[in-house]
Design goal:
99 residues; mainly alpha; 0% strand
């Protein structure tokens, strides 16, 4: 934090704040946006404007596991509680308008 404050306080006219961690191997393999940025930057520097663009997003599968208790709670919530709450509210509105 002191380094950042020091840079902002004593900034030279042509100095920039940043680093090159977005082009390291582990950052490029984990982050599609970093790879797109580096690829587009290199294509721009090489005057290949027709190659500049954003690649289609690679779909990633998302998996999660639930134990029996959590699955049962989810099932009751979806099948019983979610429909029951609007029904109770509707019944309350109906009762109030009826009176």
């Amino acid at each position: 934090m002191f380094t950042v404050a020091h840079i902002f306080c004593h900034q030279e006219p042509n100095s920039r704040l940043g680093n090159a961690t977005f082009i390291q191997n582990n950052a490029l393999t984990q982050d599609q946006q970093g790879l797109d940025f580096v690829s587009s930057s290199l294509n721009w520097l090489l005057s290949r404007e027709q190659m500049i663009g954003i690649a289609p997003k690679i779909p990633q599968t998302l998996t999660f596991s639930l134990d029996e208790k959590a699955l049962s709670s989810l099932r009751w919530g979806i099948l019983v509680l979610f429909p029951l709450v609007p029904a109770i509210l509707g019944l309350g509105v109906w009762w109030r308008r009826r009176a």
